[in-house]
Specification:
233 residues, Aminopeptidase, single chain
């Protein structure tokens, strides 16, 4: 499925007291403040007023092979060279993302500006399956643009639609709490390497999916080698 989210228009900020001058036909300040950037810029420019862009247009799509190199460069910029030494990398190395759960955000020019993937894992020896989310990254030059939140909500929605029971991740608890993640269900689980317990979070997509879950997470995704061999056959 080529899932495409509704593009977020480029909005701009505008003080309410300027709105009557830029929109004399009766538009209120609150409405003007939510107008597209290009509309406000055109109106304000004729009056010497500066308008600041606060978000950029973007669309979320299924990741394609053409995104891979740009994704690696984006992750290097956003997370630094130490990103491949994290415990979660042990669960991703040599594996493919869970089917249908790798997403890319592109700007209006088609440039990759955000990425998120989800990976199949097993909860301990012989345990049930779950998803591991990450990395979630947005181009550092346009942080706070809403792209990260949109990627998260899209990924969670698609994981639920595909019938997965739970998503785990290692990340900043205050940020991920807005999407329903917490450390309440991960006390008996562990990552395969050093990790901070308070940053090991989970979200149940199906109530009770993490009941009795315990043990160290293990990779369960499709092998990259297997896909390459199938493509060559």
């Amino acid at each position: 499925m080529n899932a495409i989210a509704t593009p977020y228009p480029g909005f701009a900020t505008l003080s309410a007291d300027l709105a009557p001058h830029l929109f004399p036909t009766g538009d209120k300040g609150s409405a003007a403040a939510h107008a597209p950037f290009d509309v406000l810029r055109a109106a304000a420019g004729s009056r010497g007023v500066s308008v600041e862009r606060v978000a950029s247009p973007f669309a979320i799509e299924d990741e394609t092979a053409g995104d891979v190199l740009a994704r690696e460069a984006l992750l290097d910029r956003a997370m630094g060279p130490g990103r491949k030494r994290k415990s979660s990398e042990k669960l991703r190395r040599g594996r493919l993302p869970s089917a249908g759960l790798a997403f890319a955000a592109h700007d209006i020019d088609g440039n990759l500006v955000g990425t998120v993937r989800l990976w199949d894992v097993t909860l301990g020896d012989g345990g049930s399956r779950a998803l591991l989310l990450g990395p979630l990254a947005v181009d550092p030059s346009i942080k706070s643009s809403g792209i990260g939140s949109a990627l998260m909500r899209h990924a969670i929605g698609e994981a639920a639609r595909l019938g997965h029971g739970a998503i785990l991740l290692v990340g900043d608890a205050p940020y991920y709490a807005r999407f329903g993640f917490s450390a309440d269900r991960t006390g008996a689980l562990a990552m395969p390497g050093p990790f901070e317990r308070h940053r090991f979070l989970a979200l149940e997509l199906v109530e009770g999916a993490l009941d009795n879950a315990r043990g160290v997470l293990k990779p369960a995704g499709r092998l990259q080698r297997a896909q390459a061999m199938a493509s060559a056959a």
